[in-house]
């Protein structure tokens, strides 16, 4: 077996980078007042970067006094030093770097074809620079939409915006957002904001993007037919993405009708038919957005639960190629009554389902996923005294808990161990995961693991009072 001495190797190459006098490449980076020269070795650059392998070929290079001279004005000195450090030693420390420098490193590593570095920086922005990314969505999106290899970060940004869109739409720099980004955003079904608000901001964006309509000319009372035609041309591709049936009649007549001339006739006629005749949309109007049906948990926890269903890492970042889920609310305690009887009436049947429970006197949230439903799964019960019950089989079920509605650090999941006893369908419980691992007893929630049907990760032996409970059927889209 070979012995590896990476530490000493990396240290020696670091000395070559900082102090060696046998360099043969001078690279000038930066522009204006922020310019710096770096000294490097062509053999190392070629070996570590396909970009430099081509750039330092005889056809590209400029030589002066037998020295290769190279310019990269579009990369800052701070970013380029991190790149050289990585190339020479394989080391990278981003903990003290600003978000702007890390984003610049992402751009530079893409240009220099440093795929390993690119993937690391992309994931670091998602996982460690969340706050900065959220505060600079427009900047980040305008950058990553130009990078072919950055779909993961694109999707992360768009999904995060969809969870809380208003700060993004109302930001001062929203009007500068690239039209491709806006199109991708409005196309999404999970944009969680009232449609009339989307319409308002789309009009504002269109006005700013249309020559002669912004600033002093934004007063619609002064517009003529030519102005409306210009706005229509700007917004032509976006109008079909608006879910007009989600806009109330009052808002439609107050906020949409004044822009009648920018809406294609076939769409406007269908809208009028929907409002005047209560007809269903035909082909021109998209169906309502799926929205966010959960009240007990925040959107980030729904993502975690979906990852658990997919048996992926808790904080896995989903892409559009991943399976998409639709959650249909079928039972809510505050609406339908908190009792085992009402739960069983609403949640009857062999349907893939999720249940969430908020308990009193604490912020804790419990829940369970069942690929086969919770109750009334069949009619062939066995009899135990006056009670009817039967176990049902599933290898996919799990139960879980969160410390509060947005806990992403202390959540616990217990997957089914004895798949033959995954669900107990009993006529005196709302639901029963295993034999009492997580059970609804009318207005109470029992959480223990005496039967060992599920993993013992929840580590609780408590009877709680249910404050709120929700159940959802799950389908795919």
TrEMBL record:
Q: Where does the BTB domain start and stop, copy by copy?
A: 23-96
Q: Where is the TLDc domain?
A: 295-475
Quote the InterPro entries the UniProt record gives: BACK (IPR011705), BTB-POZ/Galectin-3-binding (IPR051481), BTB/POZ_dom (IPR000210), SKP1/BTB/POZ_sf (IPR011333), TLDc_dom (IPR006571)
Lineage, top-rank taxon, reads Eukaryota
PANTHER family the record matches:
BTB DOMAIN-CONTAINING PROTEIN-RELATED, HL07962P-RELATED
- This chain's protein is named Serine-enriched protein
What organism, scientifically named, is this protein from?
Rhizophagus irregularis (strain DAOM 197198w)
């Amino acid at each position: 077996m070979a012995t590896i001495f990476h530490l000493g190797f990396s240290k020696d190459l670091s000395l070559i980078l900082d102090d060696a006098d046998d360099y043969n490449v001078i690279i000038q980076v930066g522009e204006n007042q922020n310019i710096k020269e770096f000294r490097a070795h062509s053999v190392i650059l070629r070996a570590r970067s396909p970009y430099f392998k081509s750039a330092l070929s005889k056809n590209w290079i400029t030589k002066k006094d037998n020295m290769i001279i190279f310019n990269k004005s579009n990369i800052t000195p701070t970013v380029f030093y991190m790149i050289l450090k990585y190339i020479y030693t394989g080391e990278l420390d981003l903990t003290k770097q600003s978000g702007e420098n890390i984003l610049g490193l992402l751009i530079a590593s893409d240009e220099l074809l440093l795929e390993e570095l690119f993937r690391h920086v992309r994931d670091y922005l998602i996982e460690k620079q969340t706050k900065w990314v959220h505060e600079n969505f427009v900047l980040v999106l305008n950058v990553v939409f130009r990078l072919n290899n950055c779909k993961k970060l694109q999707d992360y940004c768009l999904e995060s915006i969809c969870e809380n869109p208003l700060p993004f739409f109302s930001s001062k720099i929203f009007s500068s957002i690239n039209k491709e980004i806006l199109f991708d955003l409005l196309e999404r079904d999970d944009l969680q904001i009232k449609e009339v608000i989307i319409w308002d901001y789309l009009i504002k964006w269109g006005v700013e993007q249309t020559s002669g309509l912004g600033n002093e000319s934004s007063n619609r009372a002064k517009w003529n037919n030519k102005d409306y035609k210009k706005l229509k041309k700007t917004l032509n591709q976006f109008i079909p993405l608006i879910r007009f049936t989600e806009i109330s009649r009052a808002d439609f007549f107050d906020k949409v009708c004044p822009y009648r001339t920018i809406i294609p006739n076939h769409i406007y006629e269908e809208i009028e038919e929907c409002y005047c005749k209560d007809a269903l949309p035909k082909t021109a109007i998209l169906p309502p957005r799926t929205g966010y049906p959960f009240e007990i948990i925040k959107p980030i926890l729904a993502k975690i639960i979906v990852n658990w269903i997919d048996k992926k890492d808790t904080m896995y970042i989903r892409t559009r190629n991943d399976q998409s889920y639709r959650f249909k609310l079928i039972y809510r305690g505050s609406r339908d009554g908190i009792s085992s009887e009402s739960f069983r009436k609403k949640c009857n049947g062999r349907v893939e389902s999720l249940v969430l429970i908020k308990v009193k006197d604490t912020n804790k949230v419990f829940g369970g996923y069942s690929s086969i439903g919770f109750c009334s799964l069949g009619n062939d019960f066995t009899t135990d005294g006056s009670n009817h019950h039967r176990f049902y089989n599933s290898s996919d079920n799990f139960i879980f808990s969160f410390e509060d509605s947005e806990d992403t650090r202390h959540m616990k999941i217990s997957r089914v161990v004895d798949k033959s006893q995954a669900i107990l369908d009993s006529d005196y419980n709302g639901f029963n995961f295993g034999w009492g691992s997580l059970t609804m007893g009318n207005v109470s929630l029992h959480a223990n693991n005496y039967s060992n049907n599920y993993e013992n990760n929840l580590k609780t032996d408590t009877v709680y009072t249910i404050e709120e409970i929700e159940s959802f059927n799950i389908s795919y889209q």
